Amino acid sequence: MAQNAAALRPLLPLAERMSLYPGAALIAAPAQPRQAVQGLAIMAGFSTLAERSAEKLDRQEAELAANQKDLNAHQEQLDALRATQKAQRDASAHQTKIAAAVQTKAESAAERAHAAVAAATAQAADLQDAIARIEQAEASAQARLDAEARELQRRHEVARANHVRAQAAALARAAGPGPSQGHGGAPVAGSVAVSWGQSTEAGPASGMTYTTAGGASVHAPCAGRVDFAGDFRSFGQMLILDCGRRYRFVLSGLGNLAAQSGQSIGKGATLGAMPASGGRLFVQLRAGSRSVDPRPFL
């Protein structure tokens, strides 16, 4: 279109003069009649050419305007799409932030529950009382999480309610699937000094006692969660491992602990080590409040 306009530009003054003063333009210089007729023909052809060129320019301008209109429409669509994508990104970021906050709150609730269990155990008068306090503290924590989930559901905060329910379920699952029978092996290398049910001065033994070498590693007899790890009364360094299904292993007499309260561990994981001078490891398996024979599970 620019080339066409450039080609017509030099002819515009002549065209204007002939359109305004055709007679004067033709008689400005003497000419033969034949030459005058030729001049008229040229002028007629030039007029037709100019008209066609003008029409072509008009079409090109119309096409350009249509293209510009389409471009503007596409730009509006693109702007709208970008705005939608930004809104989606902002909404996703907001949801992620909410989920992270809920998860942090739920994890904090679980940590508080583990801390409450450990604190209740440390205050127990004896092992029987410790197990009873553990079960009571865990039941209270579970009830609090369930109540919080129901309240969130009542307020139609479904996402947060689901997160809290998931945390409550995880708190229950973390205890483990229960002890498995056979092929586990003793939790420590050594010899059995006192077997379960063996007669002692205090009556039938409620667990098993191993005599070990100094620094021997102590391993988890089941997968589960550590309810308590620390010094307890006359038991010394003691660890209570929740295997699930209300089964718990109690191990005491360790020299140092490699696990802590609230920690989830796998079967066979290192729980600690015996004193450097050697010692005795007491192992008890409890089903609820009762001590049971641990041998089938070792």
Automatic annotation (TrEMBL):
<feature type="coiled-coil region">
    <location>
        <begin position="50"/>
        <end position="169"/>
    </location>
</feature>
<dbReference type="GO" id="GO:0046872">
    <property type="term" value="F:metal ion binding"/>
</dbReference>
<protein>
    <recommendedName>
        <fullName>M23ase beta-sheet core domain-containing protein</fullName>
    </recommendedName>
</protein>
<keyword id="KW-0479">Metal-binding</keyword>
<dbReference type="InterPro" id="IPR050570">
    <property type="entry name" value="Cell_wall_metabolism_enzyme"/>
</dbReference>
<dbReference type="GO" id="GO:0006508">
    <property type="term" value="P:proteolysis"/>
</dbReference>
<dbReference type="InterPro" id="IPR016047">
    <property type="entry name" value="M23ase_b-sheet_dom"/>
</dbReference>
<keyword id="KW-0175">Coiled coil</keyword>
<keyword id="KW-0645">Protease</keyword>
<dbReference type="Pfam" id="PF01551">
    <property type="entry name" value="Peptidase_M23"/>
</dbReference>
<feature type="domain" description="M23ase beta-sheet core">
    <location>
        <begin position="205"/>
        <end position="294"/>
    </location>
</feature>
<keyword id="KW-0862">Zinc</keyword>
<dbReference type="GO" id="GO:0004222">
    <property type="term" value="F:metalloendopeptidase activity"/>
</dbReference>
<keyword id="KW-0482">Metalloprotease</keyword>
<keyword id="KW-0378">Hydrolase</keyword>
<dbReference type="InterPro" id="IPR011055">
    <property type="entry name" value="Dup_hybrid_motif"/>
</dbReference>
